[in-house]
Design goal:
Blueprint: E1 3-13, E2 18-23, E3 27-28, E4 32-36, E5 41-45, E6 49-51, E7 54-56, E8 58-59, E9 64-68, E10 78-82
Antiparallel strand pairs: 1-2, 1-10, 2-9, 3-8, 4-5, 4-10, 6-7
Amino acid sequence: MEEKEIGKVSSYFSHVSVAAIKLSGKLKIGSKIHIKGNTTDFEQEVDSIQIEKKDVSKAKKGDHIGIKVSEKVRPNDKVFLIE
């Protein structure tokens, strides 16, 4: 399994368990990601992506997206795509 960095968490909305992520790579629904930081370290599958509150199936470099996360994340946590 190879991992490549595709973004960084910019904020976390605990009441809805959503991470806002600034992408430096591509991401699509069904992808497996690994979110890692000082106190964060978990993997999950991406089952929804939103851009400005609209559901999209994929996102590209430069997009600012929101995804549901299974655990708490923190600003500057790195997001890796597992390939």
